[in-house]
Amino acid sequence: MTSTTVFASGLSWLSPHHLIGEFGLIGILAVVFTESGLPIGFLLPGDSLLFTTGLLVTTGGIEEPLWLVCLLVVIAAVLGDQAGYLLGRKAGPAVFKRSGSRLFREENLRRSRRFFDRHGKKSIILARFVSVIRTFTPIAAGMSGMDYRSFLTYNVIGGIIWGAGLTLLGAGLGTIAFVREHLELIIIAIVLLAALPIVTELLRSRSKKG
Length: 210
Description:
The chain is mainly α. Helix content is 76%, strand content 0%.
């Protein structure tokens, strides 16, 4: 494993190759579930993980068929959002008002609530493609009292578009030699693109304070 792979994955033990080698597909699904709605999930890889998962299916790194991998990823993503929604509805205020908590930072929740208020119900879909916001938006939806049936509908749509979409994208591009040969750089690009909305939001907040 090279240093760029470690950088792209955040931590070497969170790299797709390590997760699959140690835990198989279960490791990928656990990350997808956690990152989709549990407060600690914002620390985990998301977009790059799904892209690499699809590519590994194409290149033989994952033995399960593509349709099954996509189905399981979507289920894990939907269940993760459901867990986040229920957490926000049942215990959100109590959890995020704990002083000195580094994982349950209220600022992450406030940022997601602004995103949720700005985009309404469709934020459940849009947030799937924004790092950190993806983790906390279902929690914000639960705390705001969003109708459960509406949340479930948008959750399923978002889970399919994000989970299956990025996995299929990785599988499709995995057939291209250039992509396979420059996978590390492509993953870094995906990570940077996923972080761009957060950087933009931080700069915007600082400019307003200034």
